[in-house]
Amino acid sequence: MSAPKVAPQIEAAEPDRVWFRFMRLHQRMLLQMTARIRTLGLSIPQFDLLSTLTEREGISQSELAERLYVTKGNVSGLVDRLVQAGLVERRAIAGDRRSYAMHLTPEGRRLAEAGIRTQRDFVASTLGKMPGPDLAELDRLVLLWRDFARAVDADPAS
Question: Which residue numbers delimit the HTH marR-type domain (predicted)?
């Protein structure tokens, strides 16, 4: 007679171990996406900027910096290079002589859309293989972790 099956026990996870696993996974995914985006002739920051403009074209460099979580100086240099490459245009904003609206050129839009397809394919081949309930639970946990991080930002003493 065989022994009865016992449900596997879930071990308590240590926050430090989970943190390192998450960071290593992030680094692996970033390296994999970087290689895929490079085949389009783009860096990850360039792709981030172009894909952001597909969501909301005509925003200022300041708004772009906020959306990308980088400094205005970083965005300025990045936009300069993308303008030189013929992928982004700066257009004057009526009534504001200091700011410009950022717009994609047709080639910039084509590359942004190709990058978005590349990203969707990568996500489908990795995260997309996760069963629906597990994906929903992961989403719930990531949002919870994000909320904890936001709370620390709001109150650095915590």
Answer: 15-150
